[in-house]
Design goal:
Length: 412
């Protein structure tokens, strides 16, 4: 995958605060990203156990551009198999969710168990002495492509590379601590889904949720009502390899201040028609922070914004677009009032959310600019060029850290 088109990329050696525009639109770069990031030694998010509530449940999703089926077998074990028949490559499972005793390709009706083993082949022994498979044809040699799977406290991850490092080492101890803060072993409850296709490179969304610079400037909701502002107590945390990150913050009351002076998104007189949107109920498991936005490279964002919880799955669709799938969830032991609160606050997020609509639109604008001049480069130098954790959000260290890792694994 290291062809001449990629190798002549003009990127200053060792530089991570200036990213060439070309990385956001070049098809050869994108092909290498799929192979090394999504199909390589990385854990990719594929769903939540609560989406497979019973034995024989399944869901379909994507890792990169490859379709996979997540199943729960009769014993309750979770499996992930690639969604193409071993016979002729047919992508045979089309439903997003369902129940099945086994998996059957409609083309020639090869059938598979829920863990991907080939169970049967029509006319394997021929018909009336004619045809049939060769004598050395063995069912066990023609299973579906089975991925390595890790389930932790209700969240499901998979990897095409069975030599991927253990999941706990992949996240690192500090990021794992924030992961377990949300997924602490309590049973999850699915509240709903949102889906959108954003006309921008997938990395732009990873950057967006590693960017402490923009929330108090772009988002009227955050800066006006104090949900996320630069004057809050905050931490920016990365794993040792700097691929994953957590933006951690504690809400303040908003209002005028140094961080609102000259900020056009701040609306001093703005009032809510429905004040219940800011009906925030502190939860014991927060342990202080009111917001933790977690990016697990390369495929998922885990959101805790006050009482709103969701996973945000990134599915690339070429160099210039990605699908963004939100799974909103709560906990089985939530009372009705908390469930309603989580659903109301989910209106801040999702494709038409009062906050997240801003992100989708500005990513589209960014892609329009980045696609026009392959010889320019972005600038991410707020708080210098360092790539270490910080105790404030006035920084772009998490973006620089991601590209430090990206350069190494992509060999650019």
């Amino acid at each position: 995958m290291k062809g001449a088109v990629v190798s002549d990329l003009d990127w200053i050696e060792g530089e991570v605060s200036r990213v060439p525009y070309r990385l956001y639109s070049d098809d050869a770069v994108y092909a290498r990203e799929l192979e090394r990031l999504f199909y390589g030694k990385h854990w990719n998010y594929v769903g939540l156990e609560a989406e497979l509530p019973e034995p024989k449940s399944y869901k379909t999703t994507f890792i990169g551009e490859r379709s996979v089926i997540v199943t729960r077998d009769r014993r309750g074990d979770i499996h992930v198999v690639e969604n193409h028949c071993a016979h002729r490559g047919v992508r045979f499972c089309k439903k997003k969710f369902g129940k099945a005793i086994n998996l059957v390709c409609p083309y020639h009706q090869w059938s598979y168990s829920l863990d991907g083993k080939l169970l049967g082949v029509p006319f394997k022994n021929g018909v009336k002495g004619n045809g049939g498979m060769p004598d050395d044809f063995k069912l066990e040699e023609h299973s579906l492509n089975r991925l390595k799977v890790h389930v932790r406290n209700g969240a499901i991850f998979a990897s095409f590379d069975h030599d991927v490092e253990p999941f706990e080492e992949y996240l690192g101890s500090e990021v794992l601590g924030y992961f377990d803060r949300v997924f602490d072993g309590k049973k999850l409850k699915i509240l709903g889904y949102s889906r959108q296709r954003i006309p921008g490179n997938w990395k732009l969304m990873m950057e967006n949720i590693k960017d402490g610079y923009h929330p108090g400037l772009l988002h009227t909701w955050f800066v006006t009502f104090g949900l996320w502002r630069a004057d809050q107590t905050s931490r920016m945390v990365m794993d040792a390899k700097k691929r994953h990150a957590c933006m951690v913050s504690a809400r303040n009351e908003g209002g005028d201040g140094e961080v609102t002076s000259g900020v056009t998104s701040f609306k001093k007189g703005m009032e809510l028609n429905d004040p219940r949107l800011l009906d925030v109920e502190p939860e014991a498991w927060w342990n202080g922070p009111t917001v933790v936005m977690m990016t697990l490279f390369p495929s998922v964002i885990i959101q805790q914004q006050v009482n709103s919880l969701s996973t945000r799955h990134i599915i690339p669709r070429g160099a210039g677009a990605f699908d963004f799938v939100w799974t909103h969830f709560g906990f089985e032991d939530d009372d009705d009032a908390m469930t309603e609160r989580r659903l109301r606050q989910a209106n801040l997020f999702g494709p038409a959310g009062f906050v997240s609509a801003d992100d989708g639109e500005v990513i589209e604008f960014a892609q329009q600019g980045l696609s026009t001049d392959h010889w320019d480069a972005t600038i991410s130098q707020l708080d210098g060029k360092q790539t270490e954790n910080t105790e404030h959000m006035v920084t772009e260290c998490l973006i620089r850290g991601m590209y430090q890792y990206y350069r190494e694994v992509m060999d650019l």
